[in-house]
Write a structure and sequence with these properties.
By secondary structure, this protein is mainly beta. It has one helix at about 75-85, and strands at about 15-20, 25-30, 30-35, 35-45, 55-60, 65-70, 95-100, 105-115, 115-125, 135-140. The strands form three sheets. It has a four-stranded antiparallel beta sheet with strand order 2-1-7-8. It has a four-stranded antiparallel beta sheet with strand order 3-6-10-9, covered by helices on one side. Strands 4-5 form a two-stranded antiparallel ribbon. β7 and β8 (about 105-115) form a beta hairpin.
């Protein structure tokens, strides 16, 4: 598909993350990695048709989402508050919504990470000899972002 002058293109450096319930706005992130899903493939070899096989989708797996940004006075405190609040009290049903924005900050796409919780937080090594930006990293485990939950 060709792009036109009116195509809304998501910019890879404009991500925002919000956690609910609790409405923790974790701010903007410059890098989000791990928004992916893979499927195991179940295959069944038909015995009377030579090498003919049938393929079926089996279990799916979601990667840990890893977000990075320069540490800031406001947004980094919001992340720490969420970490403090969930450290020993993870709530089932927690959603982390990651929103991709375009150059006009309009929403291009959203991913709702179901039953999400932080699995790791880190910041770059502090070094008085350097002049680099302190990079904050947050890793989130989740049960998925597709509508693939069976209704019982």
């Amino acid at each position: 598909m060709a792009l036109t002058d009116s195509s809304k293109i998501g910019l890879a450096n404009r991500f925002q993350a919000v956690v609910t319930p609790g409405d923790y706005d974790l701010g903007s992130w410059y890098k989000v990695d791990g928004l992916d899903v893979t499927w195991d493939v179940a295959d069944f070899r038909v015995g009377d048709l030579g090498n003919h096989r049938w393929y079926f989708p089996a279990n799916n797996k979601y990667s840990t989402v890893k977000m990075q940004r320069g540490a800031t006075a406001d947004d980094s405190k919001k992340v720490r508050k969420w970490l403090n609040d969930t450290s020993f009290d993870h709530k089932l049903g927690t959603l982390v919504t990651i929103t991709l924005k375009d150059s006009a900050l309009a929403t291009v796409m959203e991913w709702e990470l179901r039953d999400a919780m932080p699995s790791k937080w880190s910041i770059t090594t502090m070094d008085a000899n350097g002049s680099a930006v302190a990079i904050e990293t947050l890793e989130i485990v989740h049960e998925g972002f597709l509508d693939d939950q069976r209704k019982l």
